[in-house]
């Protein structure tokens, strides 16, 4: 319930309040500088943001409330109808959340049919991603499914924003560990790695400790101490305090996780300090529980270090210095989020510029999402952005509009270039002079160009 309150309710409340506070100004016509050409300075240039029509979102199951509400909030505020395709794994909760949305629309005297929910098996999902009545599509999910969605959407040539998860790394610089110690950073790492049992696209999967190896070992010790005290279970009907609940996926997913861990254990150098296996809960034997797992000394190129785990597994690496730390962090096909911990902000900014990822938090974990910045990744984590100003405007037709600043000055076609052309030579002299007057670096040539314009205008 704690994880849901933070990962579902808090971020949704933040999105609603942020859009209510800033959305109108974001969607106001945007004034632009206009042409650099001094002869065209009588023109105003603006971008108008108008609804696209009907926007769709195919969303994942890991945050069924927020992933449904986010596209609806942005879509409706920007003036669009919205169609949500939820995962078949969360149909019941999605239908309940949608009834809340429709109730809110009704109270506001807005047609509740403005938003619609679709739930179907994956084999039938082309009816959504390839629907010609959609004007935009957001996809949140896995890479294999994304390829199918984008391929179908290409048939109707609609824009698609694709968010495909990540392999987020946290780089902890030596200066930070020396000044701040391990306790505070350990708490941040555990929250980032094990919230929602690790089923979080911007969850922490890799931790890279730079510099002093003693700090690396101290952090591992502290993490192990805290993980060993975790309680697994369900706080819905269980009296004891629960740190981590069950996962949505079990079976084949657990086979995959255990297989990756067995592979690196067989190499001999890796330390599996906690967990590493599925867990049969005595009160909930049918629940999909996996032990919170801590792994150290991994080969950065191993399968578990390269693939998105999307489960309660935290891998910790040692790097001799910050440069090697960045090298390990960037050694991934994914590029969604990441974090850098340092007491030197100048260094933090420099490292951020070299971090090949779409979002970075400095001295924090994933707060770029709460800050309502545009959210999206690079490389294998997808393309395009939702959230923030860019996400809201991305659900609009960005219409470019120019008009005269005054009714007394407007564009007219000079006689020398009016059809039919009477003298090609004079017309060429005119347009050449126009370009010189507008763009030449020499003031003398500009003045000369204006003179020739006036001389050859008729």
UniProtKB/TrEMBL annotation:
Cited PROSITE patterns: ALDEHYDE_DEHYDR_CYS, ALDEHYDE_DEHYDR_GLU
Catalytic residues identified in the record: 163
SUPFAM superfamilies reported for this sequence: ALDH-like (SSF53720)
Boundaries of every Aldehyde dehydrogenase domain copy: 3-401
Keywords in alphabetical order: Oxidoreductase
UniProt-recorded Gene Ontology molecular function terms: oxidoreductase activity, acting on the aldehyde or oxo group of donors, NAD or NADP as acceptor
Membership in a protein family: Belongs to the aldehyde dehydrogenase family.
Record's protein name: Meiotic sister-chromatid recombination aldehyde dehydrogenase
Native species: Pichia membranifaciens
